[in-house]
Design goal:
Blueprint: H1 2-13, H2 20-25, H3 27-36, H4 43-48, H5 53-60, H6 67-70, H7 75-78, E1 86-92, H8 96-108, E2 114-121, H9 125-143, E3 155-159, E4 164-168, E5 176-184, E6 188-190, E7 200-204, H10 228-231, E8 237-240, E9 248-262, E10 267-276, E11 282-292, E12 305-318, E13 323-329, E14 355-362, E15 365-366, E16 368-374
Parallel strand pairs: 1-2, 2-3
Antiparallel strand pairs: 3-4, 5-6, 5-16, 7-14, 8-13, 9-12, 9-14, 9-16, 10-11, 10-13, 14-15
Helix pairs in contact: 1-3
Region (Disordered): 207-227
InterPro entries: AB_hydrolase_fold (IPR029058), CocE/Ser_esterase (IPR005674), Galactose-bd-like_sf (IPR008979), Xaa-Pro-like_dom (IPR000383), Xaa-Pro_dipept_C (IPR013736)
Domain Xaa-Pro dipeptidyl-peptidase C-terminal: 136-370
Length: 375
């Protein structure tokens, strides 16, 4: 995440100054010149006025599979943890997917962790307050033996849309069923596979990148936000269901399967799930991105490429008369580093190439979003 790493760099550099609070609430505006600058190896100096060793290291080791990151990953020893663990997070927290993976790792190791996920961002006061309350109850139960206030079910989730807390015995709930919602020509979305149709096409220009709106950020602009403006851009495809006849609740991981083609070997595809209310306001629920490089995805026999994108897990209720929407684009700047289209080293690249993208939706290439529907 370009936004997360540079914002964190700025926060660390200013944590002992009197301007720290001001920086937190004005970070996006102040950091925009650094977010937009190329080459990225100079962005740290624009952000904090001097080079940052860790920033240069991150750029050099920008592949998540790099040994640099594997050596720092504690998950390989997580199963050995025997101390009682209570996790508190938010659906828009920057660490959510990895926190949930840690929870599953502990469960598989035979531990009995607790999990609480609310409607929060990483810096939300609600997350902090709940963390303190849960911590006091947890310590009282395991250090003094007083379990009177310890809840019965280990998993407690806030269901967005319904604005309710629900308790479960596990994550993800076993009674959720995967349901495919297919992309159709004309921008519709439903559970039927599309008939024969031409692909939808758009042009992604990294010199005018598709902007990011809300979501998991280290910023006061994080969380659920109105997406209508970005959805009106020519470089964003939008697929929307009919008005729902009844509530639909989803809890668990969300995934998109797109059949695509691109004029470039190096490009990105970003998908975002939104809830559209009865007045047409589109609010982001969860999203995900994948970066295409040669050899990552095997082409189909017709030359198209099946791309699998993991969106962030969620718990949300789409209300009756609301609509389900999926965005498809090729960027979310500055949240994610824009794809330059060249495959050049991330730190030094300055050349930008336009990508012409196609998204298919037909019987042999049924692009879809897979939702974890609760019975």
């Amino acid at each position: 995440s370009l936004h997360g790493s540079l914002s964190w760099t700025k926060m660390i550099a200013t944590q002992e100054s009197g301007s720290r609070l001001s920086m937190l609430f004005n970070s996006d505006k102040k950091l925009m010149p650094a977010f937009n600058h190329l080459p990225l190896q100079d962005a740290d100096e624009l952000a904090i006025g001097r080079p940052a060793v860790h920033w240069q290291d991150w750029l050099e080791h920008n592949d998540p599979e790099d040994e640099y990151w594997k050596e720092a990953n504690f998950r390989k020893t997580l199963a050995k943890v025997t101390a009682p663990v209570n996790m508190v997070g938010g659906w828009y927290d920057i660490f959510l997917p990895w926190q949930l993976k840690d929870y599953i790792t502990l469960i598989e190791a035979g531990r009995q962790p607790f999990l609480t996920i609310g409607p929060w961002t990483h810096t939300d006061k609600g997350l902090m307050g709940t963390g303190v309350r849960e911590g006091i109850t947890w310590f009282r139960a395991h250090l003094s033996g007083d379990q009177n206030d310890l809840r019965e079910e280990p998993v407690k989730l806030f269901i967005m849309g319904a604005n309710e807390w629900h308790s479960f015995s596990e994550w993800p709930p076993s009674d959720s069923q995967q349901q495919r919602w297919h992309l159709h020509p004309g921008g519709s979305l439903n559970t039927e596979i599309s008939s024969e149709s031409e692909p939808d096409c758009y042009r992604y220009d990294p010199a005018d990148p598709t902007p990011s709106v809300g979501g998991p950020l280290l910023s006061p602009n994080s969380g659920p936000k109105k997406n209508n403006n970005v959805e009106s851009r020519l470089d964003v495809l939008v697929y929307t269901s009919a008005k729902l006849e009844q509530d639909i609740m989803i809890i668990g991981p969300v995934q998109a399967e797109l059949y695509i083609n691109s004029s470039l070997e190096y490009t990105d595809f970003f998908t975002r799930l939104c809830d559209v209310n009865s007045s047409g306001k589109s609010i982001n629920i969860c999203d995900g991105i994948t970066r295409l490089v040669p050899g990552k995805f095997k082409p189909e026999s017709d030359g198209s490429i099946k791309v699998v994108i993991d969106l962030w897990p969620t718990a949300h209720c789409f209300r009756r008369k609301h609509r389900i929407r999926l965005q498809v684009s090729s960027g979310a700047h500055p949240r994610f580093v824009r794809n330059f289209g060249t495959g050049e080293p991330l730190a030094t690249a300055t050349k930008l190439i336009v990508a012409n993208q196609s998204v298919y939706h037909d019987p042999t290439r049924p692009s879809s979003v897979i939702l974890p529907i609760m019975d």
